[in-house]
Amino acid sequence: xxxxxxxxxxxxxxxxxxxxxxxxxxxxxxxxxxxxxxxxxxxxxxxxxxxxxxxxxxxxxxxxxxxxxxxxxxxxxxxxxxxxxxxxxxxxxxxxxxxxxxxxxxxxxxxxx
Length: 113
What we know:
There is one protein chain. By secondary structure, the protein is mainly α. It is built from four helices and no strands. The two termini are 29 Å apart. The chain has one domain.
């Protein structure tokens, strides 16, 4: 009986994490769909999203080292964005703000993996 409760708690935790991931992805969809991948920041973030998708799709890749490496790559991208000069136009500002929002949501997503 104790094993049954333990297994049920494990499944509940697993599905709660999956629900959080789904909610985050759903919240990210409008921002991701507006990403401009013609600017360097957009290209970097798009490449990262593709890597993250592959990581999440293949359970064999989900090692602690891979997780730390991907998270480190996200931090490098975010640090790069912080060092850029200020936007020169409203359009550039809006694109970069959108990318910043996506990066924030990706970081939240990492906390659920």
